[in-house]
Specification:
511 residues; alpha/beta; Polyamine Oxidase, Chain A, domain 2; 3 domains; 19 helices
Length: 511
């Protein structure tokens, strides 16, 4: 059995493809099985509205890709990926026609903050100048395998007593983080809290401070780039590398169960009755679907229960637009920004998140908007534009999808009067459709499960699994339900491959 070099990877998203590349480079015979008609998972692009308008299906921007050691070492640029780096990264508009902007450059961000609240810019400069030199170590500490050792020691040595302050702020809420940093100023805090909404956590929730701060620190350190032509360019590059290494990728291959013989994995069975034998299996799907693939006695009872009752967060209600022109935002900063956080004041951002947590569609949803064609005209016909947006909603709701879309569009009209006159076509995707297209996205949650503190670090998804091995010999786990969580970074895929290769006593490939 030890001479059997076959391995199966379930899921052809970024984690699955990164994992497969590492396994193949170490000499294993690797097959990747993908449920969807095409590989990519969250990293895919489609003409969802009209011919010639290219829309990103899930992920729209790539700060974590830019920061990820797992992605940087693969040198996707050599495979044709061309990164577009926005200078004006994000804007957070308000009802009075003003906005606060996050720029790649620190001084432009400082000026925007000072324009909203005198003195806020200086406080932000002080914070970023302290932590930007340590951004790489901070990323390594948070996104590396558990337990991290070298990076935290170096970080603690550099920060000394300030490390305790950072830990307190990051484990607290983003609302508390912002009010602490900005001396109680609401609007700069709303600007910071808008970045934390990417995690699905309400701004008053413990742990959301880490998400808001880390995303904005990465903005000043690595940017929030995106690939020219659409997210599919990332998948194309990973596929090119994987194919060159001999990896086989099978799409529309619906894995129904993991085969177990003699106390270890023996491959997988597909829905069509086919079996794919393998000594080792790596799954990149989220926690509940993983439990459904396993025999009841494959893992200890308590661990199986943890997977089966894994909590998912609010869902993404996705809207894509084909527009005849750029969005006419009232705030000049929003007309130039790659990303716009449509949320308004801090209390409104909190109210929208709390409504979603209660199972209600917010009257005024907080909306994440992407304006890719301001910088990448290849995604739309000449002079026209795409618009990417999503709002957090409950997985199920009483109103119609058209009602949800209308509430989002009322937010657009509020901050960009005349928006509706620009719409050529619209495509919407509700949570049920999201899960039907990708069963790993349970309830339409793009993040693989809630990011509350009890589902983070060693508890993502459980201490027995957070280091990518499982108690079942031959079964390894990666993906958004495993530390460090979702986004297009490939870190858990790389770590699962390294765990598997270490168990086989094979030398992992390194850049």
């Amino acid at each position: 059995m030890r001479s059997d070099r076959r391995a199966v990877v379930v899921g052809a998203g970024s984690n699955g493809l990164v994992c497969a590349i590492h396994l193949a480079r170490a000499g294993l015979d690797v097959t990747v099985l993908e449920h969807a008609p095409r590989p990519g998972g969250a990293s895919s692009s489609v003409e969802a509205t009209l011919p010639g308008f290219v829309h990103d299906h899930c992920a729209g921007f790539n700060p974590m890709t830019a920061a990820s050691p797992a992605m940087r070492e693969l040198e996707l640029e050599a495979e044709g990926v061309r990164w577009i780096q926005p200078g004006a990264i994000m804007a957070h508009p308000f009802d009075d026609g003003t906005a606060i902007a996050l720029h790649l450059g620190l001084e432009a961000t400082v000026a925007s903050l000072d324009g909203a609240h005198p003195g806020a810019g200086g406080l932000w400069r002080e914070l970023i100048e302290q932590y930007r030199p340590l951004a790489g170590r901070l990323v390594e500490t948070i996104f590396g395998p558990l337990p991290p050792v070298r990076a935290p020691i170096a970080l603690a040595a550099a920060l000394r007593r300030d490390g305790l302050l950072l830990a307190r702020r990051m484990t607290g809420s983003v609302e508390a983080f912002g009010l602490d940093v900005f001396d109680g100023a609401d609007r700069p805090t709303a600007w910071l809290a808008g970045s934390a909404q990417h995690s699905g956590l309400p701004p008053s929730t413990a742990g959301s401070g880490a998400f808001g701060f880390l995303l904005q620190l990465i903005a000043h350190s690595y940017g929030w780039p995106f690939p020219a032509g659409g997210q599919g360019a990332i998948t194309d590059a990973l596929l090119a590398i994987a194919t060159r290494e001999g990896v086989r990728v099978r799409c529309e291959a619906h894995v129904e169960r993991v085969l177990v013989h003699g106390g270890r994995t023996a491959g997988v069975a597909l829905k069509d009755g086919d079996e794919v034998p393998a000594r080792d299996v790596v799954t990149t799907i989220s926690a509940r679907p993983l439990a459904a693939l396993l025999p009841d006695d494959a893992l200890p009872h308590r661990l199986m229960r943890r997977l089966r009752i894994w909590r998912y967060s609010t869902a993404a209600f996705k809207l894509d637009y084909a527009l005849r022109g750029p969005v006419p935002w009232s705030a000049a900063e929003a007309r130039e920004a790659a990303v716009v956080h449509v949320a308004g004041e801090l209390r409104e951002l909190a109210a929208a998140a709390q409504a979603g947590e209660r199972g209600e569609v917010p009257e005024r949803p907080a909306v994440v908007v992407g304006q890719h064609t301001l910088l990448d005209p290849s995604r739309a016909p000449a002079g026209q534009h795409t618009l990417y947006c999503y709002a957090h909603v409950p997985a199920r709701y009483a109103c119609s999808d058209e009602d949800v879309a209308a509430r989002v569009e009322q937010q657009f009209e509020r901050f960009a009067p005349g928006f509706s006159e620009l719409v050529l076509a619209r495509a919407l995707r509700n949570p049920q459709r999201t899960e039907a297209e990708n069963p790993s996205l349970v309830g339409g949650d793009l993040g693989g499960g809630s990011y509350e503190l009890d589902q983070q670090l060693v508890f993502r998804p459980a201490p027995e699994l957070c280091r990518y091995r499982t108690p079942l010999r031959g079964l390894y786990v990666a993906g958004a339900s495993v530390h460090p969580g979702g986004s297009v970074h490939g870190m858990s895929g790389r770590s699962a491959a390294r765990a598997l290769l270490a168990d086989r006593r094979l030398r992992p490939w390194r850049a």
